[in-house]
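thoughts on my protein:
***
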Amino acid sequence: MLSKNPVLVLLLSMIFLSAIADPVTKLEGPKIVSALEASYGKRAAKRGTAWLNLMQANTRLSENDNLEKVNQFFNTFHFIDDIKLWGVNNYWATPVEFIGVNGGDCEDYSIAKYFTLLELGVADEKMRITMVKAVNLDQYHMVLAYYATPASIPLILDNIDGVIKPANTRNDLIPIYSFNGSQLWLNKDRGRSVASGDSSRLKRWRDLRQRINTARLKQPKLKLEF
């Protein structure tokens, strides 16, 4: 069942359109917390408050400091497969849904970290949500890659290995493709990516952004509050 609370229209537009289209737009904290409580309960509202506090700008923190605090914050959430949580095989939750239900899978961690770092002022071109093959698990996995400069070896923000490490030390991950708010890259071999058009080519990314703009919050099949 989808929530149609009208406050969510303003809420989600403020969160995500600010990140994608207008980075100077301010989040309206009380409306975010109110919407989270209305859709998911009091604990979700507390998590929303913690998230808003996390996104308060602190000029004393470096960009790497922000990477660390965002990575640590979201890695405390519960990992759970989409089929158990949402009742579908592959659902890319919005950050508000992820925070609201208190968990998700690797895509949800990466997407939430990406949008949160955008709000903290990290440039879109410095980040890529990256699909990889997790060798040790023998399955596909998603991480967030941060590039200090276009030529830098990226740092990997991951929910499996919670320590941020340079990509060249993560031999357990084989990149397949990556994307951000505007661009899609395909990895031809380890360490080399080739631009391959607009990221809107990815259906699930396109669907996620459409759901953000329609301001609907999906209700989980399984409650993760303990």
Notes: The CA atoms of residues 160 and 195 lie 27 Å apart. The longest strand covers residues 127-134. The chain has a mean pLDDT of 85. Residues 7-20 form the longest helix (14 residues).
